[in-house]
Amino acid sequence: MLRTVITVDTFDFTRIRANFPILSSEVRGKPLTYLDNAATSQKPTSVIEAVEHYYRAENSNIHRGVHYLSEQATDAYEIARRKVASFIGAHDTDEVIFVRGATEGINLIAHGFIESILTAGDEILISHMEHHANIVPWQIAAEKTGAILKVIPVNDSGELDLEAFQSLLSERTKLLSIVHISNALGTINPVKAMIDAAHARGVPVLLDAAQSTPHMPVSVSELDCDFMVFSGHKICGPTGIGVLWGKRTWLEKLPPYQSGGDMIEKVDFEGTTYKGIPGKFEAGTPHIEGVLGLGAAIDYMSSMDRIGALAHESALLKAATDALLEIEGLRIIGTAANKASVISFLIDEIHPHDIGTFLDADGVAIRAGHHCTQPLLKRFGVPATARASFAFYNDFDDVDRLVTAVRKLKKFF
Amino acid sequence: MSEDLNELYQSIILDHNKAPRNYGLLDAPTHKAEGYNPICGDKIIVTLQLDTERFKEVRFQTASCAICKASASIMAVALRGKYLSELEVLEILLNKLLAGEELDGNALSTNSDLAALSGVSKFPSRIKCAKLPWQTLHSALKNPI
Lengths: 413, 145
Prior knowledge:
- The complex is a heterodimer of chains A (413) and B (145).
- Chain A is an alpha/beta fold and 413 residues long.
- Chain A has helices at 13-17, 45-58, 68-87, 102-116, 136-145, 162-168, 191-200, 220-223, 248-253, 288-302, 306-325, 352-360, 374-379, 396-412, and strands at residues 26-27, 30-31, 33-34, 96-99, 123-127, 148-152, 173-179, 205-208, 227-231, 242-246, 264-268, 271-274, 330-333, 342-347, 364-365, 367-369, 385-389.
- Chain A is globular and about 75 Å long.
- In chain A, the strands form 5 sheets. Chain A has a 7-stranded mixed beta sheet with strand order 4-10-9-8-7-5-6, sandwiched between helices. In chain A, strands 13-14-17-16 form a 4-stranded antiparallel beta sheet, with helices on one face.
- Chain A has 14 helices and 17 strands.
- Chain A has 2 domains: 2-43 and 305-412, Aspartate Aminotransferase, domain 1 (Alpha-Beta Complex), CATH 3.90.1150; 48-302, Aspartate Aminotransferase, domain 2 (3-Layer(aba) Sandwich).
- With 145 residues, chain B is of the alpha+beta class.
- Chain B has a single domain (3-141), classed as Sufe protein. Chain: A.
- Chain B contains 7 helices and 3 strands, in the order ααβββααααα.
- The chains are: A alpha/beta (413), B alpha+beta (145).
- The A-B interface holds A 28-29, 350-354, 357-358, 361, 368-370, 374, 377, 383-384, 408, 412-413 and B 1-2, 4-5, 8-9, 14, 39-43, 63-69, 123, 125-126, 129.
């Protein structure tokens, strides 16, 4: 039924779905309808095989062995770094730091700002729609340094109040740390304009691209942000690996985050000198399998028609939004004009947890809860929402199954 | 409609969710506590009046799912007039139910509403929802006003 509504959708998702083994599986005796992509993406065979291949054929520590395997692993690791640089439009590969995920990336910057940038009375500017990962590190930074956390408000549609943003920028602002796409609402923020405005006031910008990298090409050189973070597992890579990118001048200025092996140049009890970037920020044996898996994920994402993928996701978003809004008592939280394929919804007085469990019985996996954005949900006066989030590999059958399951649930409660 | 789902949302549970007993807060409680589930943001406030070792009344307020609300409602009814020592007996029963253990007919028949929580055992992610009111009750007991 829904399929006929969509006229322009040329993205070849049938071929793409076949690349993801889990998508043809069943849960609770029903075909899996995976709509929790904002939490984590599924993995294509090429990523699964890259991780397996590392352990079968390449396993060795990097940056320290003179033997064949170590050289192979080191090469593969550094090639992955180059793939990341190219994926995010960075010209200088050394500016790519491997971390555990977007959360650790933000913590690394917050740590550096606490140690060497922030003093009492300085301001850090974030928004009301940040993930807890882009709130709590700055609260701690404020507590430790006496800096003040300022928050850009959000309007009823779930868009940033850009006028308020302008007035919140001041000579005391030491950093703007802003989310590109809201994980809870799907709002796509006008970050290019915000970065330009911040730079006009001499304010550096950290971009949380955890939710944008899965949906669209994100180029740090085009956006001209100063730092950017994202997580591998949301772009079809393994968990536990992510990227912090920063401009060289900034990364050289900031102190090491963790210390130990592999990040030093020379250790002496009289004093230790550190490696330059990126090594300075990568203490200890890294998540090698994760980096290689991330490299394979980037190869996969880059082999795809990403503009076509985005158009396909937009078509899914429109079909699902239209069909869900026909259901009486259902309301969508987050109705920004510019939105990624994320739908946060509520139905009458039915608690999102009950919605989640009920849909799960029909094989439909969604997220129910506060999505690590408690201040944002409080702004909308709700403690939790049900959230369906679509990826490029979802299809219109997934939309049908979601809508059918929600209709069934309405009758039950 | 799967059988497990029917067992989870038994009519007793749905009834307690739609029309929770002892809903609201006591004006002059002897004990009070708030409980949160940090994973989902569920919130419950439990107030109670304890007369020496005996529950005179338990009342609660929630912003939570059906399982949490029903469990709170069942708890509030079950505790009225009970002694503190009887709470432990009820909780042993609850924990057995949530672990999916078989119970003898006698225990079930005297606690039929509580027994309706047995369906939760098939949904591990929901066990914390059923437990939150009881955990909050314990916080309240440690928190005399």
